[in-house]
Design a protein that fits this description.
about 525 residues; alpha+beta; 13 helices; 16 strands; binds zinc ion
C-alpha cells in the first residue's frame, strides 16, 4: 500500500491525470516521488503482494493488498490468498492511458457486431470485472553499425544482347532499433499478445513500483533470450528491406545473404540490451462449462483482442429465419430439376464437412501449441521429462482453393453436361466426401478438444444414398427429394458440430499452473 503523505490514505494510480491520487484529501502526486523505504532505486527488487488463485494456481502481483474477487487466468470467482514477496524490478513501464470506461466501451463496440454471442458476455456486471494487469515484456535494443559490403547487379538490353554488370557495393551502415518487444509470460497466450500489439514504446517511463497501486501485474517467467532469435530476425529483415529500397541503391538488384546467421555478420547486428518492461492490458475472463474465454484490451491504444464464442441456439434460429426467405426467392426465379438439386446438396454436404475438417485441424494446431512459442519455451525451460512428441507437419491445402475446385466441377457437370456424363459426378462425390470425413475423423482421434463424430458419418451415409439414387436414376422424383432432405438434415447436424468446435477454439481449457503442481500450462 502506498500511503498519502498528507492524510495516510491509500494512494492509487489515476489514469486520467497519470498521477497517484488520494481520494480522501484530493491530493495528486508524481508516481516517482512516492516510494516505500525498501524500494529505493538502488534496490533491484520491490515489495509486492502476491495473489494466488486456489483453483488454477495462477499468480498475480499487485502494489496494494485489496482482496480481489476474480482470477484473470481461469475466471474463478474465489477470493485469492495473498502473501508478501519481493519481485525483480523491471526497467520500464508504459502506464495505463485508457481508463476502464474506455476499455468497456471498446469491448461493447466489438460485441455489438457479434449477434450470435452468448448473452452472458454482454451482461454489464460481468463487463465490470475487467481488470488492469501489467503484462511483462522483454524489450530489445539493437544496433547495426559500421562498414557493410554486399553484391549487386544491373541488367540492360542492347539489341539482342542482355548485359549484366556485377557490382560490389559498400556502405556505411548506421541503424538502431529500439522498442522491439515480446511478451515474457507463458501464461499470456501468444495469440492474444500478438493481437494486442503494437505498444508505442516512445511512452516508456522508468519503472517505479507505485505505478502498480490499484493494478495487478504478471511476472516474467520466460528468459530474456527466449525471443532473441525472433527479434534479431525481425531487425535484420527490416534493415535488409531498407537497404534494398535506399535511394542510392534502388537501381541495383541488391542481393543480401540468406539466413539469420549470415545476415547477422553481414549487417553487424548487435543486441545492445534486453530489458524487462511492463505493458498495460485490461483483462476479462469468462468461465463456462469448464472452459474459459478471454477478452483483452490494450491499455495504451484501446485495441481489443478477443475470441467470441457462438450461442448455437441463437445461431440455428437465426439461420433458419434467413433460410426461409432465401428459399422462397430462389423458388421464384429458377426451377431446378431434382437431379440437379441433389447434386447441389451433395456439394453443400462436402462444403460443410470440409469446414468441419479444417476446424479440427486448427484445434489440433492449437492443442499441440504449434504456434505458441512462449508455451513451448516454458515447457522446455521447466525441463519436462516427457520427450517431445514428434509432430507431423499438417499440410492442409487452403480450404478455399479446394472448395472452389469442387464447386466448379459439380456445377459444370450438373448444368452443362448430358445426363450420362452427369452420372460420373456421383462416384467422385462419394469418394471426395469419404476422403474428407475419414481424414477428419483421424484428426479427431488424438484431439481431446473436439466434439462430435456422428455428423460426418451422417453426411457420408446421406451422400451414399444420393450416389445410389444418382446411379440408378429411378423414375419417381420422390427418391431424389428424399435424398435431398437426408443430406440437408445431415448438413444441419454438421453445422451444429462446427459451432461446438468453433466454441472450443474461441475458449481455452482451464489453466493449471505448475506453481500448484499441475502439469498443463494450456
Ligand atoms: Zn490524502
Ligand atoms: Zn485461477
Amino acid at each position: 500500500m502506498y500511503e498519502c503523505p498528507n492524510c495516510g490514505g491509500n494512494l492509487k494510480f489515476e489514469i486520467s491525470s497519470q498521477k497517484l491520487y488520494c481520494a480522501f484529501c484530493d491530493t495528486r502526486l508524481e508516481p516517482a516521488s512516492v516510494t516505500k523505504e525498501a524500494d529505493t532505486l538502488e534496490n533491484d527488487s520491490f515489495e509486492v503482494n502476491v495473489f494466488l488463485c486456489p483453483q488454477c494456481g495462477g499468480e498475480m502481483i499487485s502494489g496494494d493488498n485489496d482482496a480481489t474477487a476474480f482470477c484473470s487466468y481461469c475466471g474463478a470467482a474465489n477470493i485469492l490468498s495473498t502473501r508478501l514477496s519481493r519481485e525483480k524490478r523491471p526497467k520500464y513501464i508504459i502506464p495505463f492511458s485508457k481508463t476502464k470506461e474506455d476499455c468497456k466501451k471498446a469491448y461493447a463496440q466489438k460485441l455489438r457486431k457479434a449477434i450470435f454471442a452468448p448473452k452472458a458476455l454482454k451482461d454489464s456486471n460481468f463487463i465490470d470485472s475487467f481488470r488492469g494487469i501489467y503484462m511483462p515484456y522483454w524489450l530489445y535494443h539493437f544496433t547495426q553499425k559500421g562498414p557493410v559490403a554486399f553484391k549487386g547487379k544491373r541488367t540492360k538490353t542492347k539489341g539482342n544482347y542482355l548485359y549484366t554488370d556485377h557490382y560490389k557495393l559498400t556502405a556505411d551502415l548506421d541503424a538502431e532499433s529500439q522498442g522491439l518487444s515480446h511478451d515474457a509470460s507463458a501464461a499470456f497466450y501468444d495469440s492474444i499478445s500478438q493481437e494486442l500489439a503494437p505498444f508505442d514504446t516512445r511512452n516508456l517511463k522508468p519503472f517505479t513500483p507505485s505505478y502498480l497501486s490499484g493494478f495487478y501485474a504478471d511476472v516474467p517467467d520466460l528468459a530474456a533470450d527466449s525471443y532473441l532469435a525472433d527479434a534479431t530476425d525481425t531487425v535484420n529483415q527490416n534493415t535488409a528491406k531498407q537497404i534494398k529500397h535506399h535511394t542510392e541503391l534502388k537501381s541495383y538488384d541488391v542481393s543480401l545473404p540468406n539466413g539469420n546467421k549470415s545476415l547477422n555478420t553481414a549487417l553487424n547486428t548487435k543486441c545492445e540490451s534486453m530489458d524487462s518492461a511492463m505493458y498495460p492490458v485490461w483483462f476479462l475472463s469468462w468461465q463456462n462449462q469448464g472452459r474459459v474465454a478471454y477478452a483483452a484490451v490494450n491499455g495504451q491504444t484501446g485495441k481489443v483482442a478477443m475470441d467470441i464464442p457462438i450461442d448455437s441456439k441463437k445461431y440455428l434460429i437465426g439461420s433458419l429465419l434467413l433460410a426461409v426467405p432465401i428459399f422462397l426467392i430462389l423458388n421464384l426465379f429458377l426451377t431446378l430439376r431434382p437431379s440437379v438439386l441433389m447434386i447441389l446438396c451433395a456439394v453443400l454436404s462436402m462444403t460443410a464437412t470440409e469446414i468441419w475438417r479444417y476446424e479440427l485441424d486448427s484445434i489440433h494446431m492449437r492443442e499441440t501449441h504449434a504456434n505458441d512459442k512462449g508455451i513451448k519455451l516454458s515447457k522446455k525451460q521447466q525441463k519436462s521429462d516427457k520427450a517431445p512428441k514428434k509432430q507431423k507437419n499438417s499440410s492442409v491445402t487452403p480450404l478455399s482453393l479446394r472448395l472452389i475446385f469442387l464447386w466448379l466441377l459439380c456445377l459444370f457437370t450438373a448444368l452443362f453436361l448430358s445426363n450420362i456424363a452427369s452420372r460420373l459426378i456421383w462416384p467422385a462425390a462419394i469418394a471426395g466426401t469419404a476422403y474428407i470425413c475419414i481424414s477428419g475423423l483421424k484428426m479427431k482421434g488424438p484431439s481431446q478438444d473436439t466434439k462430435g463424430g456422428l455428423s460426418p458419418a451422417a453426411v457420408l451415409a446421406s451422400v451414399g444414398a444420393a450416389t445410389l439414387t444418382g446411379l440408378i436414376r429411378p423414375v419417381s422424383d420422390l427418391w431424389y427429394y428424399g435424398c435431398v432432405l437426408l443430406m440437408l438434415a445431415s448438413v444441419i447436424l454438421c453445422i451444429t458440430d462446427i459451432i461446438r468446435n468453433f466454441n472450443r477454439l474461441a475458449t481455452y481449457r482451464l489453466p493449471q499452473f505448475d506453481k500448484k503442481g499441475g502439469e498443463d500450462n494450456a
